[in-house]
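ENTRY TYPE: paired fold submission
RECORD: A
CONTENT: sequence, then structure tokens
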Amino acid sequence: MDLWQEIHALSVSIRRNQEETLAELRALREELQREVRTRLVERVLLVVAFLVGLMGWVRP
């Protein structure tokens, strides 16, 4: 293998590594967004349950 072929092979390897890293980052970002949405839904449901309980306590 001459020098140019080695440089090209290294370039391809670096590009593939970057693509894999970006794919992993996208997957992590999507997972984080799902977790944030889940926590938001849990908080909303907790507030709704609290309000329903409070309404039942105030007006039996």
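RECORD: B
CONTENT: sequence, then structure tokens
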Amino acid sequence: MFRDVLFRVFSLGFLIFAMSLLSSPAKAVSLSFQSSDIDLDGCHITVNGSWDVELKLYSLMGEAIESTRFRYSLNPGLTYVSLPALDGSHSYFKTSLKEIPSNARNLLQLYDVKIRFRLKTGLLEKPFVYLISDVGNPGKPDGKTWSFNVPGSPDWGRFLTGEPGGSYLSASDAKKLFASGLELAEATIVSCKLTEYELQNWYKSNTKWPEVRAMHKAYNYLSEAIRRSTGLNPPIYRSLHVNSTVHTIRDSVIEDHDKWLRMFQNKVKKLENLPDRFITDDNPKPYQAALAEVPKIIAKIKDYVGNWHSSDVDPSSLPQGYPPQVPGMYQLEEKDDGIWVIDSSGTRFMKLTGYMELLGGTHIIETFYMGCSKKPGVQTIKVINPQNGDLLKQFDFPCNRVGKRAHRFEALNVEPVYQNEDKEAGELKAIKLQVINDSGKQLGASPKRCSGMKAVNFDVRAHNYRVELPHLTLKDLGETTIRLQRSLGDAFCLSTG
């Protein structure tokens, strides 16, 4: 069940964070600004809430890069949802999110959210341009958690428009306007979709309303059969709304359903155990047929509910984004108290240890080594966000050849891989790893005491990997044989003459 929903935004409060623009065309130019809407209007009388969005734009090696992250919350009193009737009709009923228990409200989720940014340029002949951005997977509506999309690199000719919903500006015009400097003037959510998948499955697992309806039907069926078989007139409960489309869920929904279910279960049990003195030989068949039918009525609704599945979009199937890493954004600064990661304005972010290295201005690589001479160990590489020190990914490689060999080669070599192999201006594309965990084959004779020989060549096996950035996925490139030297023996002799 897909529903397109349209947000209309009337008032926006903007908080603009201006970053220094790097003047060199060989390096990245980056902007960052954040907007907050405190009065989000309704959406087809279905969704109402508030939101924040952050847009990052930068140019790298002549290409446009953009990324958006988003967070939002929903107003329970002005947001309406559809829940399954679970009565075999395949229908749904509307209810306010406020009527859902608070612990289940965040199960509702938006996706395919598209935002139109109005950007002020530095040129009088074209004061404003527009950009449409998809925020990716927005996540839960808790109003706190920022979710990330996957940073994209659109063609310059499909990047900016001159009017809302207008045609794209040419590549040359887009580059010119981008270079003039951009400021955020307005942000509007123009479309999105809503998935109730998790909320509907929660309702299915927690509601007793289908069983209440089944028990109500079973009770009335038994009552009518008893009237026909005995002449007695048990009351018929016609006041219960069997059609769930007129039933309103309240905060106490579970307790209300349990109460109704227990009541009808007790009444059905009494009618199923009618004393023998009320059953005559005149017409026992209607009552006997009803006794056989009651278990079928109950089993049928339980089977239907158990096999029901939401047809809405499963949030776990949506692509998961990641925070954008702006190429060339960070650099190193050596001070008396150590080496720090800083940005172009000189702001400090984190201090490096002896095991850390900043690669390409985007990622910190941290390596550790655990020896394998006595027992198996691991060689580890950690990929860290320079801005906050968060661990983005960790890769562990075994060094597992156990033995008492005198000369072992165990190392983890890290080499950055740049676009076009341009380490000054190029974008960091990947990290090449070379894992050596075997002593290999010794070439030539071992040095003898006082021989003056200082090294012996070895052919060793090295396993090669490539870590793709920024996705941080590991590719196995296979084994190679390389030649290394290791100093051996005693190269210092005493003179005896």
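NOTES ON RECORD B: The chain has three domains: 26-199, 208-307, 409-496. The chain is about 15% helix and 35% strand.
STATUS: closed
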